[in-house]
Amino acid sequence: MNYSTDTRDALLRAAQTLFAERGFDGTSIRAVTSLANANLGAVTYHFRSKDGLYETVAESLVRPLRARMIAESAEGGTPLERIERLVRAVFDHLQANRDLPQFIIQVLAGSRPLPTVMAQMLRANHALMVDIIAAGQADGTIRAGNPRLMALSIIAQPIWLSIVRSALRQAIELDQDDQHTRAEIVDNAIRFIHAGLAPLPEEP
Questions:
Q1: Which pLDDT value is given to residue 18?
Q2: Contact status, residue 47 vs residue 54, Cβ threshold 8 Å
Q3: How far is the CA of 92 from the CAs of 30, 80, 96, 177, in angstroms?
Q4: What is the mean pLDDT of the segment spanning 14-37?
Q5: What are the pLDDT digits (tens) for 35-78?
Q6: What digits encode the pLDDT tens for the residues 127-157?
Q7: How far is CA 113 from CA 3, 14, 55, 61, 81, in A?
């Protein structure tokens, strides 16, 4: 039997594709090993179980985004500049990792709990955004409000637009694969977020 690193990578690629297309319940170990051209026992050898494989796929999809968000935030700048970089990073990651939006759809549609690593990354990324918003509120560049809810509204922009990309293309001919259209969508989301975070005018 060949239990090489190449086999492990092939299993991950196959599982990522199938979990994104069919969800956890609709994906069998046999389907994964067949697509990866691997022995049926390879999943147990490398990941212990289907659950272990599922968690590893989730980690491979979200951990790079977490690393990028940390790096972008560490670049410094005003709170609004940092928020803009984070939003662009999420858009870029979802565009480059097409299985992730589909994986999210399957997770939301299924009855299983959120994969542990996804819950951890969501919690950490949300906390990062909350801290930046709070810093902007402290220096007066971001309006008053609940930072936790404001952070959700910001993060929802790239996630929602990525999840419904196929529906938007079919229903209103908004093709996010077109480079010019995509740039307009991202820039518009950034302007929308800036407007939503801007300090409110003083009451007369």
A1: 97
A2: no
A3: 33, 18, 6, 12
A4: 96
A5: 999 999 999 999 999 999 999 999 999 999 999 999 999 998 99
A6: 999 999 999 999 999 999 999 999 999 999 9
A7: 30, 22, 11, 17, 34
- Residue 44, token pair as written in the block: 């147990």
Nearest to 25 by CA among 112, 115, 116, 114: 112
